[in-house]
Design goal:
single chain; mainly alpha
């Protein structure tokens, strides 16, 4: 009986473990649920990849939408920074320069030659990024990502937001 409970617990946790590792990004699951949004397609894609074991092979072989050049990134640093420095960041962003803006751009891993362009793009879109006093750090980061994605030369930095 204990083995049966352990097996069911393991199967039940597969979607959680899979989604925690962002497994739905490539593999059969990503192909089956391509362009679908919401939690259900993400969990189903992750479950498909986790239960079939295909994603490991796909990453290794470069098939099913997986590549070997992938980089594991985390946006917790930018989120924590904006959350802790919202007022200073807003002030620096409105001016287009300052220590908190420089730090934020560094957290995005912006190349030296693009730092001024990123700062300028963010300053020009200040009203979009900070539409009011009650804006949350999550909304600020979503707007920053949108601004970067809308600029062909800077869009690759959006993945680091």
């Amino acid at each position: 009986m204990k083995k049966l409970i352990a097996i069911f617990a393991t199967i039940a946790l597969l979607p959680v473990v899979a989604s925690a590792q962002n497994i739905g990004q490539c593999g059969w699951g990503s192909k089956l649920f391509h362009d679908q949004s919401g939690i259900a397609p993400q969990v189903l894609a992750a479950t498909t990849n986790g239960t079939s074991g295909n994603q490991t092979f796909a990453i290794t072989s470069g098939t099913s939408g997986c590549t070997q050049e992938g980089v594991v990134r985390s946006s917790w640093k930018t989120a924590a920074f904006v959350d802790e420095n919202m007022t200073r960041f807003a002030h620096d962003l409105s001016r287009g320069n300052g220590e908190s803006l420089d730090t934020f751009v560094s957290l995005l891993e912006v190349e030296e030659g693009d730092k001024q362009l990123v700062g300028q793009a963010l300053q020009e879109n200040y009203a979009t990024i900070f539409p009011g006093i009650e804006v949350s750090s999550e909304e600020v980061l979503a707007s920053v990502k949108t601004v970067l994605l809308s600029n062909e030369n800077l869009s690759h930095y959006a993945a680091n937001v």
